[in-house]
């Protein structure tokens, strides 16, 4: 029996909208359906070939309840025979969707699958799924001395442990905006974005969170968000956003049968976890784990996408791994572009796939911190 693999034949994303911005009026099911239709239009595939839609959604309540994946299939006008499943690994939900889709392809559970995700944080506020409840339970709280994990406090603990100054965090944030602005101005995002027509007749086709002309002095005037004497502010943390991404995945053999051209292969994947109180450090062991699994060295990787949940997360990762700073988030990251929780993994993967194709790079490594002290890591190989 021939060895099966998992390849990406197309990757698209919405522009990332600011909170209460251009995408806020579009239901997350309809945003998801828009991405599914974009995949079909760009590849020419008959949607009936798709055997499952694996979809990351962070807050599965309100407008994002009742399985967005299945609702999106139906809203897209795709055949009723196509199922869908929504998954939650917090910030890494749609990166995990790619992992699950790839595993199913390699195992022979399906031959054509869509992986992706969405989050409309304007419509479903962060933390909405915990409203009126106690998500951690007495057992977990007792284990950690009654301390309820908080990502902002975790980001402060990282800055403290790695000796990162407020100025360093702010400088990193500025570089994110500068790189994202340069990517927009250079047309680097154009091919990966599926512009979204809105009910008001406006077409949203550009990421809305990028701020130009900032300075370290202007960022220094922002108040710390989590500690009175802290270093983490709204300026050096990711933005609350709306948006998502989607990838059409299959095997090399099936792609050839359907006349599709793979653009990348899922080379290796890993997931790791650490202390849930500091919460955001697991990208470091996840990176080491996926490199070992891949049989690759840090120097083999042409581009690193470490989700910029907070500047301290990316800078601690950089300090521990010793990676080349120029290869990290070359087109900016969540500090500038935004972080629609369930959709970020697919947004980042889409940006990474297109970056490798545009620059001739071979390997890309993506990792992101996740609630509960977890992290996914993926190495993709451009084809």
TrEMBL record:
Protein name as annotated: Thiolase family protein
Family the entry assigns: Belongs to the thiolase-like superfamily. Thiolase family.
Family matches, as NCBIfam families: AcCoA-C-Actrans
Lineage: Bacteria, Bacillati, Actinomycetota, Thermoleophilia, Solirubrobacterales
Domain of life: Bacteria
Classification via PANTHER family: ACETYL-COA C-ACYLTRANSFERASE (PTHR43365:SF1), BLR7806 PROTEIN (PTHR43365)
Record InterPro entries: Thiolase, Thiolase-like, Thiolase_C, Thiolase_CS, Thiolase_N
Keyword Acyltransferase tagged: yes
Keyword Acyltransferase in annotation: yes
Chain ranges of the Thiolase C-terminal domain: 261-381
One Pfam entry name: Thiolase_N
Keywords, alphabetical: Acyltransferase, Transferase
Residues covered by the Thiolase N-terminal domain: 7-251
Organism: Paraconexibacter antarcticus
């Amino acid at each position: 029996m021939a060895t099966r693999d998992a390849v990406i034949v197309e990757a698209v994303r919405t522009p990332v909208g600011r909170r209460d911005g251009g995408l806020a009026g579009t239901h997350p099911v309809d945003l998801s359906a828009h991405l599914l239709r974009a995949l079909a239009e760009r590849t020419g595939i008959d949607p009936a070939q798709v055997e499952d839609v694996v979809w990351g959604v962070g807050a599965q309540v309100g407008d994002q309840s009742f399985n967005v994946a299945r609702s999106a299939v139906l809203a897209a006008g795709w055949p009723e025979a196509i199922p869908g499943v929504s998954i939650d690994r917090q910030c890494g939900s749609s990166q995990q969707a790619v992992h699950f889709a790839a595993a199913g392809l390699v195992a022979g559970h399906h031959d054509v699958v869509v992986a992706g995700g969405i989050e409309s944080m304007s419509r479903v506020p962060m933390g909405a799924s915990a409203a009126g409840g106690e998500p951690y339970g007495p057992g977990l709280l007792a284990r950690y001395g009654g301390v309820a994990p908080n990502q902002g406090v975790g980001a402060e603990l990282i800055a403290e442990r790695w000796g990162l100054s407020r100025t360093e965090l702010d400088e990193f944030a500025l570089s994110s905006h500068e790189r994202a602005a340069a990517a927009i101005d250079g047309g680097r995002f154009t091919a990966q974005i599926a512009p979204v027509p809105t009910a008001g007749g406006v077409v949203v086709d550009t990421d809305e969170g990028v701020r130009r002309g900032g300075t370290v002095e202007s960022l220094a005037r922002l108040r710390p968000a989590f500690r009175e004497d802290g270093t983490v502010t709204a300026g050096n943390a990711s933005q609350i956003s709306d948006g998502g991404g989607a990838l059409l995945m299959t095997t090399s053999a099936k792609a050839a049968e359907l006349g599709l051209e793979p653009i990348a292969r899922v080379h290796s994947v890993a997931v790791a976890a650490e202390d849930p109180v500091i919460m955001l450090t697991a990208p470091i062991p996840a990176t080491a784990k996926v490199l070992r699994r891949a049989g690759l060295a840090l120097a083999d990787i042409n581009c690193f996408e470490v989700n910029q949940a907070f500047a301290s997360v990316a800078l601690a990762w950089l300090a521990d791994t010793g990676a080349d700073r120029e290869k990290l988030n070359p087109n900016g990251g969540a500090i500038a572009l935004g972080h629609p929780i369930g959709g970020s993994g697919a947004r980042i993967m889409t940006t990474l796939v297109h970056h490798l194709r545009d620059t001739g790079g071979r390997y890309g490594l993506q990792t992101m911190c996740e609630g509960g002290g977890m992290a996914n890591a993926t190495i993709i190989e451009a084809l």
